[in-house]
Amino acid sequence: MQKLVINGGKKLGGEIVLQGAKNAALPIIAASVLCGEEIILHNCPRISDTYSAMRILTYLGCRAGFEDKNTAVIKAENVSADGISDELMREMRSSIFFLGAVLGRTGRCRITLPGGCDLGPRPIDMHLSALRKMGVTIREEFGALNCTAENGLHGAKIPLSFPSVGTTENIMLAAVLAEGTTVIHNAAREPEIIDLASFLTACGAKINGAGSGKITINGVKSLYGCEYTVMPDRIACATYLACAAAAGGELVVSDCRPSDMESILTVFEQMGCILHTTGEKIYFSAGRPLKAVTPIRTMVYPGFPTDAQAVIMAALCKAKGTSVFAENIFENRYKHVDGLRRMGADILVEGKVAVIEGVNRLYGAKTDAPDLRGGAGLVAAALSAEGTCEISNIHYIDRGYEEIEKVLSSVGADIVRI
Ligand code: UD1
Fold first, then answer.
1. Backbone phi, then psi, for 127, in 5-degree steps?
2. Is the pLDDT of residue 82 over 80?
3. What is the end-to-end Cα distance of the chain in Å, rounded?
4. Full-model pTM
5. What's the farthest any 2 CA atoms get from each other in the chain?
6. Per residue in 276-290, pLDDT tens?
7. Checking CA distances to 230, which of 68, 298, 343, 385 falls within 20 to 30 Å?
8. Minimal-distance CA residue to ligand 1 atom 25
9. How many angstroms does the Cα of residue 165 sit away from the middle of ligand 1?
């Protein structure tokens, strides 16, 4: 079992070249199933979730792997419609994207329920109901879902009761090769939706409105191969800025897209940090002392993202004053609070609200990463703690961050993986 050992109290300084976005790469890798020709994906992060996605591709009979540092090559010449094993489905939540993609390509798919971080109930009812509207019959058999589109998938008008990111993406995947036009109303507007649409468009799909609440997909007969660069990871960027805010110091994050991060960058400014942004760089100087911020409510894009809640909370543990979070997207997303408290943080959680009273110091403790972003939050807090922190269960962190210990030690953190 690996763990991260962090000796806190070292200021950060230097430049981080940001990784590609996990939440864009995963649906794009699944989308490759829709094209019979070769796909070359640049800026694809080498994280355990992208390896899981490639294992699913291999299981389906496709060729997939990294050929260069962050360049993945995928060829889905033949795609098995037999479905995906339960073991692979449970490796991550994003395995659900293969349902829309395999159905789109073959008209059939058998899956079990996807896994992923335990953030409370994460149903797939909206995914399934949308696919039913597109002509898919779903039968539950021995804990598996047997999905078939006997007469092929057809376009449909699909109003979403909530702008779910995954549901919007799964509908797009199922719709690009479907007969006719699909219109998603109340679609998610996250930047990663635009990235998926741009990738599919580069393969010949006809998609309009990605990034708005109404997405229109006109089905085409087939898609061709393409070369595409995955967008930067705005949550990893927020994480490294939170690390610098917590530890102190100055950081430059390059290859990022500050325009996708306004709700997050505003919070750092409120903390007293100084930010200067250009098209793809953030120059960041940590404020001292950090200040508490006005209440943060997690929301769908362009609101404050739930995925940045844990890392920002970690940075606020030593901020002067009281900060409040309201978590509105997932029910069980404060599991990192226990670890932060072990380091000396003063945090009260009541339902969806967390109240953080800034303390003067955090200290070394042994903690477990409770999930992906919660684990990253513990890393950020540990960088500002006095003494040594040990963080176990880091397979969660590896799901979304490319060699987090190497990135942080390159900018002066004392962090090792043992
Ligand atoms: C995606 C992101 C995840 C992020 C989340 C919210 C990826 C790979 N993951 O997850 O990092 O935290 O968006 O920004 O992009 N819901 C249902 N029924 C459904 C689908 C969703 O009730 O069929 C609920 C969920 O339980 C949750 C809310 O809708 O409460 C938002 O979920 P959704 O936007 O779908 O998130 P994911 O796509 O799972």
1. -60, -50
2. no
3. 9
4. 0.97
5. 65
6. 999 899 999 998 899
7. 298
8. 122
9. 6
